[in-house]
Write a structure and sequence with these properties.
Layout lengths: L1 H44 L9 E2 L14 E9 L2 E13 L2 E10 L4 E9 L4 H14 L5 H5 L7 H18 L12 H4 L8 E5 L11 E7 L2 E13 L2 E10 L4 E6 L7 H12 L3 H7 L18 H4 L14 H18 L18 E7 L5 E9 L2 E15 L2 E12 L4 E9 L3 H17 L3 H5 L3 H4 L4 H20 L1
Antiparallel strand pairs: 1-2, 2-3, 3-4, 4-5, 6-7, 7-8, 8-9, 9-10, 11-12, 12-13, 13-14, 14-15
Length: 482
């Protein structure tokens, strides 16, 4: 009996081994064929998104410095020798299957048609007929609107495609989450192995004196802190400096940019800061009178030695020089951004970073929605009018208000929308924010965007969208009159 059982077991084991071997052999034969066919299909469809009159580069773009979820490859698209956009190959899966496609983004941010490489979604036909085909049939200026129409009977598949196109758009516009975000090696060493990818943050809504750039430092998908940078002006010197602040708003070290030879003043400041046990207390101690207690720093105190007039520190009165003042101000200002106490000015968010540097109020309330009008300037030169607009719309829950800032350039072009305060229902505001405000800010033709059908853009929240449009039209009319 035992020998019979053993014989059956051995036989089954042999059969299983042979079967596994055959499966492995078949896989070894078919895998490269499948891969080759997939590559062939990509090559055959590369021309579809931009059209046959556009050349797609043979060489792939290097995406190794970016942290990407969906985009797998990209190529430059050119016409008559001039780059007109970028072609992206994206892949993604959800609980219903996967979709692989090609899509192009023009240099002005507009989108091309999509070319499906593979679609294994359970609702494949619905997705292709009600979402992908509708998108491809839309005019170029309406494709972003069509992209947002995800309620098509295959919502999960449409959402998956929407997310992938968004990542391609971010990458094309330079907003992609980069592994290094262009930071020099010296700055990357501030967090070292604690972080493995970085992405630049917008500081446009802050009124800042010293800090110019901020980068989120992440380990995987978890934030570990920020790196701040600036090219500080101190008399005739420009100081490239980087500073780390962790997610708990505690100072890390700081460093200078590459190829910079620091003055003894700047070098002494950074050396003292990096060696300090309590960096915040160290910064607070720099009064310009040479005071810096031994219990604040781990090494020799500074700037006491650099600033003292005599051996008696109590009688020392030398002030911080320009480099020391800038380095101190930079560190303190960076920490206010991290802890949320930095001075916010939504008017700056109406512009790209560096477009304006000051505002002058020219009028108070003048219409139904206009609360205040400022003139935005850069180096004393007029750039735009900025309007604070407030309005209410009737809902079943009572009147709901939203206050925004909105810019109109002197030449008539429209700036961005910045939300000052929102009093509308969160569920409705979420649609307005993503489908209308963010889409308007990203649009290459904002005047044309305002003319679109709000009912289609923001399903279920068109009243709020109409309110936004009405307020901006009042601001535009006022700006044109001026």
């Amino acid at each position: 009996m035992k020998s019979k059982i053993l014989k059956v077991s051995v036989t089954l084991a042999v059969i299983a081994g042979v079967s596994a071997g055959l499966i492995g052999l078949v896989n070894a034969i078919t895998e490269p064929v499948i891969a080759a066919n997939a590559l062939k299909k990509v090559e055959q469809q590369k021309k579809v998104p931009f059209g046959n009159d556009v050349d797609i580069a043979e060489k792939e773009n290097d995406l190794s410095s970016y942290k990407l979820t969906y985009v797998k490859k990209s190529w430059d698209a050119s016409q008559n020798g001039n780059k007109i956009g970028t072609l992206f190959q994206t892949e993604g899966t959800n609980q219903y299957g996967s979709v692989s496609l090609l899509i192009g983004v023009y240099t002005d941010g507009s989108l091309t048609d999509r070319s499906i490489l593979e679609n294994t979604e359970s609702y494949k036909t619905t997705l292709e007929d009600n979402y992908i085909s509708v998108y491809n049939q839309a005019a170029k200026e309406n494709k972003k609107q069509a992209l947002g129409q995800i309620k098509c009977g295959a919502t999960f598949g449409a959402t998956l495609i929407n997310n992938r196109v968004t990542e391609a758009e971010d990458l094309a516009s330079g907003k992609g989450s980069s592994v290094t975000a262009g930071l020099p090696q010296e700055a990357l060493e501030l967090f070292g192995d604690q972080a493995d990818n970085y992405s630049e943050e917008s500081l446009s809504a802050y009124k800042l004196t010293y800090v110019q750039n901020a980068y989120t430092a992440n380990k995987g998908d978890s934030k570990v802190g920020r790196i701040y940078s600036s090219a500080l002006k101190a008399d005739d010197e420009t100081i490239p400096v980087y500073l780390a602040i962790d997610k708990d708003n505690q100072y890390g070290n700081r460093c200078f940019g590459p190829d910079y030879t620091a003055s003894s003043s700047a070098e002494g400041f950074v050396s003292g800061f990096n060696s300090a046990k309590d960096k915040k207390a160290y910064l607070d101690s720099l009064k310009g009178n040479g005071s810096s207690d031994d219990d604040i720093t781990a090494g020799p105190t500074w700037p006491y030695d650099a600033n003292k007039d005599d051996e008696d520190s109590s009688s020392s009165s030398a002030a911080l020089d320009a480099a020391q003042t800038a380095l101190q101000g930079f560190a303190k200002e960076a920490r206010t951004i991290s802890d949320g106490t930095a001075t916010r000015d939504t008017r700056f968010a109406c512009f790209d970073s560096g477009e304006v540097d000051a505002f002058t109020q020219i009028s108070n309330a003048t219409g139904t929605f206009i609360q205040k009008i400022d003139k935005a300037t850069k180096g004393g030169k007029d750039v735009a009018y900025v309007y604070d607009l407030k309005g209410e719309n009737d809902t079943q829950g009572g009147k709901k208000h939203r206050e925004i800032s909105f810019a109109v350039y002197i030449g008539g072009a429209l700036g961005k929308i910045a939300v000052i305060e929102n009093g509308q229902t969160p569920s409705y505001y979420g649609r307005i924010k993503s489908k209308f405000i963010d889409a308007f800010n990203a649009s290459s033709d904002r005047k044309a965007f305002l003319k679109q059908n709000r009912q289609e853009i923001v399903a279920g929240a068109s009243s709020g969208a109409d309110l936004l449009v009405n307020r901006r039209m009042e601001a535009i009319s006022d700006a044109e009159a001026r």
